[in-house]
Specification:
The chain is mostly helical and 254 residues long. It has helices spanning 2-10, 14-37, 44-67, 71-75, 78-91, 102-107, 112-123, 125-129, 131-155, 165-176, 188-214; strands spanning 218-220, 230-232. It is flat and about 65 Å long.
Length: 254
């Protein structure tokens, strides 16, 4: 049984690929579900779906640890503990006194998207060719939704201007883009510190994303002579020193 499960998770057969794509689809769906329901109140149907998702994530995590050659190494991975925290927030909502904090815990599931991208990069050429753009977009999305969750949790009980999750998202985006309309501001020392954190880290991530999207597509390939790391995907010569390059190319349809 263990060998069969390990084959599904790590094998190269078509059946194994379909199984892994199913897991990737599940990860993407759960991430999207947490993002969408973050703007909703915790209603009974949401808690019921959370319970099902929590059980499925727990089964997946248990199987990964079971088939691992080194379970302790698996337990030391950040993604494992993120899943543990998310599972607890999904399975034990009635034991947590601050239900608003669940929004932060479930937003951590967004960090799972890094694992999803790694899996997709191994399977799909499109993700390999556009890795930097996609990674930057994921960085921005993770930051926006986690910081929005923090703004909502910290400010909702004390700030009359943060009545809903949409209010928190509106403030976060306004601060992120340095628009600063001023109609919503964070109050208290914790609110001011949080606003500073959003502005400092957010602007850096936003500029990085824009730069990545509009910069011509390049690949990492160190020039043997001058050491220049980045070149156009179809470059024949190094732009810096003129050395003939041999950049691996999978072809347009790869």
């Amino acid at each position: 049984m263990r060998d069969t499960v390990r084959t599904l998770y790590m094998g190269t057969s078509e059946r194994s690929r379909r199984f892994r794509f199913g897991l990737l689809a599940f990860d993407l769906v759960t991430i999207a579900f947490f993002v969408v329901t973050s703007v909703l109140e915790l209603q009974p149907w949401v808690i019921a779906v959370d319970l099902v998702i929590g059980i499925l994530i727990a089964i997946d995590l248990g199987l990964r640890i079971w088939i691992s050659e080194s379970p302790m190494t698996q337990l030391r991975q950040t993604a494992t503990w993120i899943d543990v925290v998310v599972i607890l927030s999904l399975l034990l909502p009635t034991l947590l006194t601050n239900l608003l904090f669940l929004r932060v815990l479930r937003a951590l599931r967004l960090l799972r998207s890094y694992h999803v991208l790694r899996e997709l990069r191994q399977e799909i050429g499109f993700f390999r060719r556009n890795e930097e753009v996609i990674q930057s977009a994921v960085n921005l999305g993770v930051f926006v939704f986690i910081m929005t969750a923090l703004v909502y949790v910290v400010q909702h009980p004390i700030n009359p201007k943060i009545e809903t999750y949409i209010d928190a998202l509106y403030f976060t985006i306004a601060a992120l883009t340095t628009t600063g309309f001023g109609d919503i501001t964070l109050i208290g020392t914790s609110g001011k510190i949080l606003a500073v954190l959003i502005m400092i880290l957010g602007v850096a991530l936003f500029l990085r994303l824009v730069q990545t999207i509009f910069r011509p597509t390049q690949v990492r390939h160190a020039c043997p002579d001058c050491g220049l790391q980045r070149h156009d995907a179809d470059a024949v010569h190094c732009k810096h020193c003129g050395r003939v390059l041999n950049i691996p190319n999978e072809g347009r349809d790869a």
